[in-house]
Design a protein that fits this description.
The structure holds 2 protein chains of 2 kinds. By secondary structure, chain A is of the alpha+beta class. Chain A has 6 helices and 13 strands. Classes of the chains: A alpha+beta, B alpha+beta.
Chain lengths: 292, 841
């Protein structure tokens, strides 16, 4: 499936910003299951410099500086991505019981496993807790195949948590989300990752986009989409397998990956240090257009 | 001499640096030992006191901002040095250099290919669970010559006499400045001893260090622009930062002095941005860049990591180096040495177990009651736990904490550092000693400082921590078998003339110099005024023989209260305000810590401002500042107002010395002009205010005599007046001398003309004549106003006994001069616009 993605971020300031330094994770890169055909990041006002680089997790990053006074910053990321069908899970991965995978992760000295041990540990937004262990144990029954257990966990998040925008922000701690059982896609991804790590598995955060279908008979609305987030679990020998707890499904060709990391903090779309500015208003629009 | 005879010094069991176990002095110490013990305790006591005084004068202090009693606290330097024999030192040096090479290879690996993690040589969790492993620093380009140009290592000698490493420092290998300072003091006290016994010099190390630091620049360049980045005076080690900056001839900056522009790091100076090649940072990793590292850091530079990535700047040591301070690594160094160097590790570390490893965990749990338990990553914040001091319940609790998160704990063997004598007031007692050594590597080669900083603790074997600066330190003497090239070099001044770059002035420094000038004059003015008041006979009898405060004194009180911003006990009487309790008022004006303008508060602000530009002030100037601080402490201890006059006079003398030194010893650069601007502006405002309070309303002739004399005293013009007029005091000549005489350096017009001169010399953003700039126009107007005034008209009185012309002139000037201050601040000091940080999504 081929998509054209436009992700626009606009900041308006009540006072003049004289200088700003920015760091963005706004442009996708090619992975096992997607090819990025073309991509651009267009910034207004024109930045004095812009550098592209790859971060620790191999995500594409941009650094740019704006040195002219401005009261509006607009960052438009455009890309064309071909999403490939996911490889089918091979035997015997599907039948691994989760304890087996857990022990393998802890004991093996395979280079791939050694490096992925960082996804078993606490990260800045996700800390292990008894609450998370308890939540995970509802799905991870003794001897259960790993993927079945993860699917069950995903399903429980989908059923037991309420999707509610603007009750959480990026600073809402995981404990709050667990307590009130509500949040948005990034909270649900964090809950799942935290639960998996709490019982000794490796899990990571995925930010990206989801193609939305318009209601039957209605035209597709440009800009009605939003950026999305889900999680992936690491299966030795198989790699990372994605799960979308917000929609209770295994991502297929409608999920486009933007970046991966230990949690949201590793892949924040746009960070900045600005001089001046006063009050600010943020406007974001995302448009995922299928090209066939 | 034996142990028993040596001033009753009795080392406990274990290794003693001075005596072997059978009580004879160690071989290498022989000559030094007999020389020093010949002196006897009283001479050594004198030396110790002298060392103490020198430390105080040099301001070797660690800064205690939270301490209200004193701004600055000194440490102790014990007179018995730690002496290390040549052969032993050479062996230690080999071990230190090997460790340096090893850790550098490890650093490059962890932030590069991560082979040690892939191959399982190093447990992944040890690195990944530590927040010090900084992913934004992954694959940052490293300097070609040497990734980590400087390094410091803490050592202790165990009971068997072997040196063990306790910790490695890469983020801020601080302490070399303190070591040098200690040596400079010893060189003054014991030059002959140092010479005779061929103690190796520290100076060559600093020359190598400087070349290695500046040589890290990405592009080869003759004199790379190198700055030392400090977090500022609130840093406990700020003294050392200023000391190093001066000694190495590098510019000391704070985060706000730097900015990244188009991917380059620039120093913001008064005449624009200048590219920086090397940043030697004295701040922690996580604080280096608020954009990619810790968001709320206000001491770093946004975009610093990108500038490194783009090879536009080199940062020393590169951010990310904190991972090498992870103490869990100590357990793996022997394996790593074999892997990276194909060598056995020469210098052992303190025995360490990392609980994330199953075998290490088992050992730790079995020996919990004899080990020290530390939590990883926050070794500094959470204190180590000593297993042998725990109750059974506490042991159980710590066991459970470890089991819950084994990877976050390490266990270390408790070692008993060697002992050596420490002078107390009357005798020698054993103290446990730690040694901090310093290394540098780069284009000028790898070198270990032949010496270091030793810290001693006289309390049990509890390891003395270097973080608690302010304890007892010792000089470290490394002996040499060949004569040491000497001469006067042991203690002389800075290594190099500061580069031209150093002359450039950041707006922060300019602002601090401006305020330094203002505070110094403000204190001086207040002191002169109060001294005059204290020396006037306070009371007189009125017509009915009632005791009344003199009117003149009352007038001067008013001037003093307005100057010191004191809230006095004036009672609004029927005719005019009448001071209820002048004595306690004056006490408050001097000592109050609530009134912003009291002498005490202003002096403290003055010292703090001086501290912020510590690197711009000579050591003589700093000695005077210490003296000012001492007098203030003495003044605060006095109970009777009459006793204060002596202290006020000493303060005045010291302030004059301060002014003289700061004005005379500073090159006539922009910094000097800002200092001058501050001084002249403050004195102008004071004189105007003083005249306004005292002369705008006429007093009766007797009172006027008293007032004029007081005014001439306060403005330090009385001698000129007497010499010139040889007559009794008259209004017109006195006013002329104080107000308009441009040849009197204390007159208002002299201040204004000087102000005009300084303003003329300031850099201008656009090429334009000075009178077109706002500040230039303002000063021109004030100067002209005064020059065009006629003394005859100014002294005219009207029918309400006022002097309207004088009042108009003073009022107008009082409106204009504050504008000048605002204009200067707008044009030159506006660097500190609020910075907003945000995470956008």
């Amino acid at each position: 499936m081929r998509y054209r993605i436009e992700h626009m971020t606009r900041y308006q300031y009540s006072d003049v910003v004289t200088v700003c330094h920015n760091f963005a994770h706004l442009v996708p890169c090619s992975t096992n299951n997607q090819d990025v055909i073309q991509r651009t990041l267009h910034v207004t006002p024109a930045p004095a410099v812009m550098y592209e680089a790859y971060d620790y997790f191999n995500n594409c990053t941009h650094y740019f500086e704006i040195l002219e006074p401005h009261q509006q910053l607009e960052v438009l990321a455009s890309s064309e991505v071909v999403v490939l069908p996911r490889t089918t899970l091979s035997w015997p991965t599907i039948y691994y019981c989760w304890e087996h995978v857990r022990d393998l992760l802890h004991r093996s000295d395979e280079p791939e496993i050694c490096c992925n041990r960082q996804f078993m540990l606490d990260s800045s937004l996700i800390r292990r807790s008894d609450q998370l262990v308890q939540f995970a144990s509802g799905s991870f029954l003794a001897g259960r195949p790993l993927l079945e257990a993860v699917s069950d966990l995903m399903q429980r998040i989908y059923r037991e948590f309420t999707y509610r925008a603007s009750v959480t922000t990026i600073t809402t701690p995981l404990e709050e989300v667990m307590k009130h059982r509500q949040g948005v896609c990034q909270d649900f991804a964090h809950v799942a990752i935290g639960a998996l790590r709490a019982i000794g598995l490796a899990a990571r955060y995925v930010s990206g986009y989801l193609e939305t279908s318009p209601p039957p008979g209605k035209p597709r609305l440009v800009g009605a989409d939003a950026s999305h987030a889900w999680f992936a679990v690491f299966v030795p020998g198989q790699g990372w397998i994605d799960f979308d707890p917000t929609n209770n499904l295994l991502p297929q060709e409608r999920h486009i990956t933007l970046a991966t990391g230990r949690d949201y903090a590793d892949v924040a779309p746009l960070k900045g240090v600005i001089l001046g500015g006063g009050q600010e208003t943020l406007y974001v629009s995302v448009d995922v257009a299928p090209l066939g | 001499m034996t142990k028993e005879q040596f001033f009753y010094y009795r080392p406990p069991d274990g290794y003693d640096e001075f005596f072997t176990s059978d009580g004879t002095p160690r071989d290498h110490l022989g000559p030094i030992f007999s020389r020093m013990s010949d002196w006897g305790l009283s001479h050594m006591g004198q030396l110790r006191d002298k060392a103490k005084r020198l430390l105080l004068e040099n301001g070797v202090a660690y800064n205690v901002y939270h301490d209200h009693q004193s701004v600055i606290r000194t440490w102790d330097l014990d007179i018995w040095p730690l002496v290390i024999a040549e052969a032993e030192w050479l062996q230690l040096e080999r071990g230190l250099k090997q460790r340096y090479r090893l850790l550098e290879r490890l650093f490059a690996d962890l932030y590069g290919t991560q082979d040690v993690i892939r191959t399982g040589l190093l447990p992944a969790e040890l690195i990944f669970a530590d927040a010090a492993f900084s992913r934004p620093c992954y694959r940052l380009p490293l300097a070609v010559q040497q990734a980590l140009p400087w390094y410091s290592v803490d050592l202790a000698r165990n009971t068997d006499g072997r040196f063990l490493v306790l910790g490695d420092h890469f983020q801020r290998p601080t302490g070399p400045g303190y070591a040098l300072e200690n040596r400079q003091i010893f060189a003054r006290l014991l030059r002959n001893v140092l010479n005779e016994h061929q103690v190796r010099l520290l100076r060559p190390f600093f020359a190598t260090l400087r070349t290695n630091l500046t040589g890290s620049a990405c592009q080869p360049r003759e004199d790379p622009q190198t700055v030392l980045l400090t977090s500022g005076p609130q840093d406990a080690l700020y003294f050392e930062h200023t000391f190093l900056a001066n000694y190495l001839g590098l510019t000391l900056v704070q985060g706000e002095d730097l900015a990244t522009r188009s991917g380059r790091v620039c120093l913001k100076t008064l005449d624009g941005l200048h590219t920086v090649d090397v940043v030697v940072r004295l701040i922690d990793d996580r604080l280096c860049d608020p954009l990619e590292l810790q968001e709320n850091s206000c001491v770093g530079v946004a975009g610093l990591l990108q500038a490194i990535r783009g090879r536009r700047v080199a940062v020393v040591n590169p951010p990310g180096a904190a991972i090498l301070e992870n103490q869990g690594l100590l357990a793996w160094l022997p394996q790593l040495a074999r892997h990276f160097l194909g060598e056995e590790l020469l210098l052992a570390s303190t025995p360490t177990w990392w609980c994330g490893d199953r075998d290490h965990l088992a050992y730790t749990l079995d020996h919990l009651n004899t080990l020290i338990i530390k939590s990883l990553g926050c070794v500094r914040s959470s204190p180590p736990v000593f297993g042998d001091q725990l109750s059974a319940t506490e042991l159980l609790a710590i066991r459970q904490r470890i089991l819950a998160q084994p990877a976050s704990f390490i266990a270390q063997e408790r070692i008993t550092p060697s002992t050596m004598p420490v002078m107390t007031d009357h005798h020698l007692v054993p103290g446990h000693v730690l040694l901090r050594t310093f290394l540098t590597a780069g284009s000028a080669g790898t070198e270990v400082m032949p010496g270091g900083l030793a810290a001693v603790s006289t309390r049990s074997a509890q390891v003395p921590f270097f973080d608690n600066y302010g304890g007892i330190t010792k000089d470290v003497w490394v002996l040499s078998s060949s004569p040491v090239a000497r001469g006067n070099r042991q203690s002389s001044g800075p290594l190099l003339q500061p580069s031209i770059f150093t002359g450039e002035l950041s707006s922060r420094v300019a602002e601090n110099l401006f305020w330094l000038g203002r505070y110094a004059v403000r204190v001086e003015n207040a002191l002169r005024l109060l001294r005059t008041i204290l020396l006037l006979p306070p009371e007189e009898r009125d017509t009915d023989s009632h005791l009344m405060p003199r009117r003149a004194v009352r007038t001067l009180y008013r001037a003093a209260t307005s100057l010191t911003l004191a809230s006095p006990n004036f009672k609004e009487g029927e005719s005019e305000p009448y001071c209820v309790d002048p004595e306690s008022d004056i006490r408050r004006m001097i000592l109050s810590s609530d009134d912003n303008g009291s002498i005490s508060t202003t002096v403290k602000t003055l010292i703090q401002t001086a501290y912020r530009v510590r690197d711009r002030l000579s050591s003589d100037t700093w000695r005077v500042i210490n003296r000012i601080h001492d007098i203030l402490l003495h003044l605060e201890g006095l109970h009777h107002l009459n006793d204060t006059v002596d202290d006020i006079e000493s303060l005045l003398t010291s302030l004059t010395a301060f002014t003289g030194l700061s004005m005379e010893n500073m090159t006539r650069g922009i910094g000097w002009h800002f200092l001058g601007l501050g001084r002249r502006l403050e004195r102008s405002l004071f004189t105007i205010d003083l005249l306004h309070t005292t002369l705008v309303h006429c007093a009766d002739p007797d009172e006027e005599q008293v007032l004029l004399e007081a005014l001439l005293n306060i403005t330090d013009s009385i001698i000129t007046y007497r010499r010139r007029y040889r007559s009794h005091l008259a209004m017109k000549p006195a006013l002329d001398l104080i107000l308009q005489d441009e040849s009197n350096p204390r007159s208002l017009s002299f201040q204004l003309v000087e102000l005009q001169h300084h303003i003329d010399q300031l850099p201008r953003l656009q090429p334009m004549p000075v009178f077109r700039t706002p500040a230039g126009r303002t000063i021109l107007e004030v100067v002209s106003l005064l020059r065009l005034s006629d003394t005859d008209l100014l002294t005219l009185t009207d029918d309400t006994n006022g002097r309207p012309n004088l009042e108009d002139l003073l009022t107008r000037m009082k409106q204009l001069l504050p504008l000048l201050s605002a204009e200067l601040s707008h044009n030159y000091f506006q660097h500190a616009l609020p910075v907003t940080r945000q995470s956008r999504f």
